[in-house]
Automatic annotation (TrEMBL):
The keyword Iron applies. Residues 8-104 form the Rieske domain. The lineage of its organism: Bacteria, Pseudomonadati, Bacteroidota, Cytophagia, Cytophagales. Keywords: 2Fe-2S, Iron, Iron-sulfur, Metal-binding. This is Rieske 2Fe-2S domain-containing protein. The keyword Metal-binding applies. SUPFAM superfamilies: ISP domain. It comes from the Bacteria. Signal peptide: none annotated. PANTHER family: 3-PHENYLPROPIONATE_CINNAMIC ACID DIOXYGENASE FERREDOXIN SUBUNIT, FERREDOXIN-RELATED.
Amino acid sequence: MKTFTLGNSDNQVLELIPNKQIKLVSVGATQICVSRIETKFFAFQKLCPHRMASLKEGFVTDFEEVVCPLHQYRFDLNTGEVRAGSCDSLITYQTKLTEEGLTILLP
Ligand code: FES
């Protein structure tokens, strides 16, 4: 398990990732998507597991889902489970907001 920390403080991370926006973040050699609803953060794979569309171009719903821009499949941001559509689950990563920034755990 690898740990990455985004930003230097909780306030800085809240500014870097505006509410319900999806940002691409480099963690080591890979890029992942990070979003949040208020102070609850979500980290997940960059490409949709259906046909590899960029999820950065999708959107986050109030039901803690990301909606893919290409065929509008919906994925649970907590578990990665497909809520609408039929494909593999989305890979999600654990996050924790602390006074030192946003910690992201990668396998
Ligand atoms: S590529 Fe994402 S739903 Fe088809």
